[in-house]
Batch of 2 targets.
Target 1
Amino acid sequence: MRIAIAATGAGRVTVGDPDGGSVHDLERHDLPALVARLEAEHAPRWIWRDTREWAPQLLAAGVRVARCHDLRLCGAILASSTVVAEAREGMPGRPAWLPPGPAEAAADASAPAAASVAAHAPHAALFELDEPVDAGSREGARHPSIDDLAAEHDRQLALADAAERSGALRLLLAAESAGALIAAELRVAGLPWDRAEHERVLEEALGPRPAAGRKPHRMEELSALVRDALEAPTLNLDSHADLLRALRAAGIGVDSTARWQLREHDHPAIAPLLAYKKLARLLSANGWAWLDEWVVGGRLRADYVAGGTATGRWATAGGGALQLPKAVRGAVSADDGWSLVVADASQLEPRVLAALARDPAMAAAGRGRDMYGAIVDDGVVATRDEAKVALLGAMYGATTGDSGRLVPRLARAYPRAMALVDDAARAGEAGRRVSTLLGRSSPLPSASWHDLQARANAVDATAVDERRARAAARDWGRFTRNFVVQGTAAEWALCWMAGLRARLAAIPVPPSVTPATASGPAFERMPHVVYFLHDELIVHAPDALVDAVASAVRESAAEAGTMLFGEAPVEFPLDLVVTRSYASVV
DNA sequence: TGGGCCCGCGCC
DNA sequence: AAAGGGCGCGGGCCCA
């Protein structure tokens, strides 16, 4: 059964079964109670334009739904998937009231990014009762009725079912929609954050918090050392241009101020400069200002953007949760009576490549716990480190350095795996799309990319034109090479997390559980996902339930492998730790 | 003053 | 040691 939810303007909402069931017209304020009742009675798939329009309000009221279909995210996948290209020909396109997906909007410089549309200041209310998404102001946009939503849902399912591997596409749409729910839940629950521990880390590294507009003590000391060593008494270390000039004037032959270049020179200014840059990074990215802005009430509430990148990996639109430096992870700590179940899919991308390519030798290497070790045992390379570098090079398209040198050895040992990524690279170089296992397709290169190629093919093309075009083609080929692996790995991770979400909701909670009061009414007694980073997640779980949660995490990983690859002989082992603090994992 | 670009660096 | 793919973010800086 499906039930659609549509805004009708002026704070009212229509909720109903478009296939002939009852339809309710109500104040938006009354929505959570109705959804809770219908969810309990029918366990429907909820059909809505955009999960971000509804989930925050429901979660704030303590109401969760098991399944939804996010028309915006699924519409974006179907609009670009080559798997349904033929079926699209005979069908109407996306309706005007359906905004583009986040990755599409980001790629289109003329339109504001969807992420920024949804973005809000961290202290703002978690939802706005009237218009949380400004789709109403888009040209040609209007409020879709529940019949509009149902018709678009039908169109999307018909497109998916027209694909040769319709099951894969259906799975992708379900996983993407589950991801949208999880992204909303991650924000509402928040990542448990120990402010005092974070401040301790900052003070140890930087010294006491400085007055507004002042630099921390340790940074001032290091700046003085650098200025002395460079004999540049007024140098501003934060200005790349000024710093580069001062370095060169002191005889240090770098052409950028990047750390890897600086490290190659022996000069008394280098050590304090590198130390300064490390501290400056900590201060600006995760210092006191970040803490004040993003950690409220003992929770980091980052703004995840499901489907925010071309490959299907998520993005964030604030809070920087995808780049929490290891130095501050000790501040992630469970509430009293609760634990963190931290799980990481080890060597996910090479395993995905082995399974995707059905390369028997590489799959055999991916059957054990340590794929890199198995590649050494196969005699392909001499050390684990070489195996890792060679695999990264194969997936990223390295051509130089150690990595580029090792790739041919990998190609001899695992020809099918190498052929898969090489084919993807060739397609990209020719300007064609490539697709993941479940059917998400890469974007087309930009108009300027095509211009470059056209110029190189013109009769009066110069050597420079040809060189530029070749470089651009190879760049895009590296992108498509990586796309198939990164994107399929993202699909594995989505399926893993979606399965886990369902399993966590089914774990019975004993009455003895201490509430995690800062996690909101939907999660205060339930184990719940609080962090997700590409191939790693954290569940905040009552102590009494950590064993059940760990089992759920493992079962979901195994199930994700089977859903994507059937009985392919590749395993997806997890590194799983139960802990109070994320620091103990790093 | 604000937008957009580059740089450098944090994460995977 | 970096390299090669995907990101976000803050600071400097240029320009209107």
Target 2
Amino acid sequence: MSEIRSRSFVSAQMVADLAGVSRSAVSRTFTDGASVSEATRRKVLHAADSLGYHVNHLARGLIQDRSNIVCLVVSDVTTPFRARMLEILTSRLQSIDKVAMVINTGGDSDSVSTALQQALRFRADATVVLSGTPAASLVETCIASGQRVVLINRDDHLEGSENLAVDNEAAAREAVFLLRRAGCRRLAVVSSEADTPSLVARHQAFTAAAADAGAEATLVRVGPTSYASGVEAARRLFSRSNAPDGVFCVTDLLALGFMDAARHEFGLAIPRDLCVVGFDDIEQANWESYKLTTFAQPAAEMVDHIAALLSADNAEPAERRVFAATPVWRRTVRPNAL
Amino acid sequence: MSEIRSRSFVSAQMVADLAGVSRSAVSRTFTDGASVSEATRRKVLHAADSLGYHVNHLARGLIQDRSNIVCLVVSDVTTPFRARMLEILTSRLQSIDKVAMVINTGGDSDSVSTALQQALRFRADATVVLSGTPAASLVETCIASGQRVVLINRDDHLEGSENLAVDNEAAAREAVFLLRRAGCRRLAVVSSEADTPSLVARHQAFTAAAADAGAEATLVRVGPTSYASGVEAARRLFSRSNAPDGVFCVTDLLALGFMDAARHEFGLAIPRDLCVVGFDDIEQANWESYKLTTFAQPAAEMVDHIAALLSADNAEPAERRVFAATPVWRRTVRPNAL
DNA sequence: CCAAAGCTTGCACACGTGCGCAATGCCCGT
DNA sequence: ACGGGCATTGCGCACGTGTGCAAGCTTTGG
């Protein structure tokens, strides 16, 4: 039984032959709003079902001016916040009859270009860049080809792209306010060495806001944006003299590592000895061991907005849309009245 | 400036015109192993670059017997283990020149069928089912059409599908052994109400192994497979008399919730009062607040195996491949010599 | 009973590509 | 010089689909 396994998808022609109608009738049966009589429609559906026919979306995408494919460019999917964006985006896209093609850029900007090329090659209707910095020239090509390009948390506004961002500055200012109201004297901000625009914006805004308030904030940047980096940041901050008592971590993941090290390696009590504020509101921030006070990114709203952008087919002028990050009060910052 | 935004991808013909060659030459330039002289190749590449040309993979997939698309059917992407599988799978697929199309089934088995239909419609080379139970008839259609179908942690061996599984029974037996060696007298196993075959296999094997060892194990099944369910399971187990002192949680996520509730709500010390064993070895299991002793699923090896399956084009007889889950020793089980 | 109008249906073209086939040009050995 | 072999090139077909157009059929109104 060494039969050759070759592709043998059933085509509309085969369905038409079995149903005794023309191929057009088959095509119309599976096209919304096309004119088919109920009788032939039933014949076609019956034949299609018994043959296991499914419309070839590759061929359909060749004819129509949309492939119903949306490319998601992302790196580091294991990061809880990214995973959540993926979760919401994929199911939301399906609800508007599109399908997600996920391209993992593995971090380096070189492969972001590769990702955009894949988006072009598969004639994606749109490309959503969740992480990484795309080459401007490729973005131009995408837009010139009629693709939509959605950039999330990028500073550089590329001509013709849609931009979503979170108001990092406001959140960072509010973090300073919360920590100082809790009575914290020595502030610090923990970030990573990644040059992600949103992370840089957060720690820069934090130090600026601290300076405005007459306080000084030490900045620590460690490795990648991970739990381990949070641990390492705590080691650096608490090994030196003049250790901070109020810390803003630009990411929940950093905050959780930071808290664990502060507690278990340095015996600090949170929020008594140390107040911590995070950013993202990942699921783990609400775990009993952490109960991290943090800023929630409105992931669902952002995805809704993206879905609306992709559904609307009018060539509206690309606008930058800013979302507010709202504080989620838990137990790592002392309450107002100290 | 109300110009209509219409799809205007550049085709091979346009490149050919600009380069002064035939369209075939353009096609061959972008086809591996085709015969093109260095001179025309350069002309074509130059023209393609200045026009922003990218091969249309939809059209290519129409001709060839492979689309280079692999469909990943998954639900609940935020679950750390699923996110890790996605992370590894997407990047591994890219390394063998395939691209991942992710279909989120949102849990219900109805949409698993929808997912398989999408895989058929986009003429995917293969479909990898990471979660959910696909309808047998649709799987048959996929295989009859020449698609590969890879099922992960499914019991029912569907004809023609490739099956990967983890040796849940062996791990569950070893969990019993570890807990009894640590001196635990009253065993329990925490699972969810989901009918995922692998989870059911784990808790069934655990109770069976416990019975073999002359011990009895209480089984608690709570809601979905989540952190919150672990919390709830702990509440149920420790509110009753005869509380367990050795618990196997069929998932790390359950274990972490279970530990947090045991510690913070019931004041138990781990591993002194209570030993806990998990399964999956997600990143959070290694966090300082948990340091969970668990069984590691060999995600990378499984993905390598999938990649090998998809690269090989021989129609080898579908075989069920079982991977061993190896114990990762951390700090939630008392060491051997008590 | 007839004309007009509406609904269905089949034909044929187009989408962008890979590849088989034949033709052309070039190089080399005798 | 000449024939044979080889690399390169262009032509044209095929892939599976959506859709405009015209023809056929059915219904309706008078």
